[in-house]
Amino acid sequence: MPSSILTVPVRRFDSTVHVPSLSEEQDFLAVEEPLQLTVRNRDLAITMRTPGNDAELAAGFRFTEGFVRQSSAVVDIKCSRNCAAVTLDTGIEIDLNGTARNFYMTSSCGVCGKTSIEALENAGCTFLPRGIPRIQESLIRSLPTKLRESQAVFDRTGGLHAAGLFSAQGELILVREDVGRHNAVDKLVGRAFLDGRLPLDDYLLMVSGRTSFELVQKAVISGIPVLAAVGAPSSLAVKTALRFGMTLIGFLRDDRFNVYADTGRILSSK
Amino acid sequence: MPSSILTVPVRRFDSTVHVPSLSEEQDFLAVEEPLQLTVRNRDLAITMRTPGNDAELAAGFRFTEGFVRQSSAVVDIKCSRNCAAVTLDTGIEIDLNGTARNFYMTSSCGVCGKTSIEALENAGCTFLPRGIPRIQESLIRSLPTKLRESQAVFDRTGGLHAAGLFSAQGELILVREDVGRHNAVDKLVGRAFLDGRLPLDDYLLMVSGRTSFELVQKAVISGIPVLAAVGAPSSLAVKTALRFGMTLIGFLRDDRFNVYADTGRILSSK
C-alpha cells in the first residue's frame, strides 16, 4: 500500500439493492497532510498535499511560483515527514516581490510541531453535540437532486462548485457557488455569520466536490454537525471529522452514500 | 447573464457524430477573478473567486479562518470590484496567531492595481512559440484513456487529482497524483526542473479536473504549449491562455473536446 493511500472503515448505505444494505467495509482514502516549505530557514508556505515526491513538490512550487528559475540554484532539498527545506546556492537572491503571484504565507503555528487538528482545538473548536440532529437515511439520499436542481439555474458552465445549507428536515436554505469550493462554503457561512445565525448546529452542509481538511475545518468552526459530499473525502478530512464528532458523508450519489465518521445521527430505513 | 458567467467562443471537436464535426460556438464559463481581502488597511489574503456575494465571502473567510468570532465585531464591509475591506469594531483585537490556520498572505503586487496576468508578464513569461508542436486531433482524444490507465494503478480512492506529461507524439512521460491539483502539477514540473528539462516546450500537459488560473499560470511559466483538462476552464484560465498563446483544451472526454484558446497547433482529422 503506497503512503498516499490510507485504509479506513466505512459504512455503506445503498438503496439500489433489493433489500437496502448497511454494511461496514474497508475503503481507500487519499492521504492529505500539510507540507511546510522553507527556504533559507524562512517559512515560505504551507500546502495540503498527498505525501510522496515531496522534493519534487518543493522544487516545482518554487519554480512555478517564480521563486527560482534555474535548477542549478537548488543545492539541496531536505525532506522530513511534513517539512521540505530547500538550500539555495549562496549567490542566488530570492526576490519575493518578483514572484509570479504573491503566495507566501507565514506559519507561526509550525506544522512541523503542532498539527492542523490541534490548531483547530486552539481556535476554540469543541466536540459537536452527539446524536443531534437525527437525520433519516432517505433524507440524505434526497440532497444531491435538490442541490443539483438549484445549481442548474446558475451553473451553465460545468465549472462552478456548489455548497448547499439544508435544514434537518431536508429543506434547502441557501446555495452558494464559486470556482473554489472553499469560497462557496465561505460565502454560505459568511451569509449566516452576517445574519447572526451561527453556530449552524441544526443544519446539514452539502458540497458538490470532494472533501478536504479545509472544508471540514470550515464546517467544524461553524458548528455544522453533518457534512455530505458528492465526491471522496481525504484522510485528514476523516480524521478531523472523527476528532470533532462530525458526521462525514462521501460519494453521495445514485441513491447511495458512505459514512466515514459518526453514523450516530443517521436513522436507517432498514 | 449573471456576472458569475462569461460567454466565450469555443471550437468543438467531436468524433462521435457520423462525420467528425468542427464547429465554432458560444460556451459559458465560470468567472474567476482575484479578490483582495483587507482588514484595518492590512492585506490579509488574496483568493481566486467567482465575483458575487463578495461581502459574504469576506465575512465567511474571516470567520472560518478564525479571525473574528462575532458578527457584531464587523462594523462594515466595503466591496469594490476585486477588493473587500472589512472594518472591525475598534474594541476588537485580531490575533493572527490564534487563527485556525495560518493563512494570511502578503500581497505587495496589489491585485487591485496590477492584474494577475500582468504579474506573470513581470515574472518574465512571454508568448509561447506559435504553431508548435503540431498535434493530431486523434492524439488529443487518446490522452484521457492513457492518463486513466496510468492513474488506475494508484488511485483506488476517487480522491486524487492526476497530472500527466505527454510527448508531442502522445507518449505518457510522467504522471503525478495529489489531493490538490496544483500539487500534482508542481510535482510533475518539479521533477522536470530537477532533471534540467525545462522549458517543456515540446510537451502536452493533461489534468484530471478543471482548469483554473493557477494551473495555466504554472503551465505558462514551465513553457508548456498545450494544456488539456477533463473538466471546464475558468474565465481567467482562458484569458491567460489567450494572452500567452497556449492551446487550452477543456471537457476532453468521451471522444470529444473543446478548444478555448489557440487551435493553431491542432491538425484536424477532417
Written overview of the protein:
- The structure is a homodimer of 270-residue chains.
- The first copy, chain A, is of the alpha/beta class and 270 residues long.
- The first copy, chain A, has a domain at 135-267: Cytidine Deaminase, domain 2, CATH 3.40.140.
- Helix content of chain A is 26%, strand content 33%.
- Chain A contains 6 helices and 14 strands.
- The first copy, chain A, has helices spanning 54-64, 116-122, 137-154, 181-194, 213-221, 235-244; strands at 5-14, 21-30, 33-39, 42-49, 74-80, 83-88, 135-136, 161-167, 172-178, 203-207, 226-229, 247-253, 256-261, 266-267.
- Chain A has an 8-stranded mixed β-sheet with strand order 2-1-13-12-11-10-8-9, with helices on both faces.
- In chain A, a hairpin with a 2-residue loop joins strand 5 (74-80) and strand 6 (83-88).
- In chain A, helix 4 (181-194) packs parallel to helix 5 (213-221) and helix 5 (213-221) runs parallel beside helix 6 (235-244).
- Chain A is elongated and about 65 Å long.
- The first copy, chain A, starts with a strand and ends with a strand.
- At the A-B interface, strand 2, strand 4, helix 1, helix 2 and strand 9 of A face strand 2, strand 4, helix 1, helix 2 and strand 9 of B.
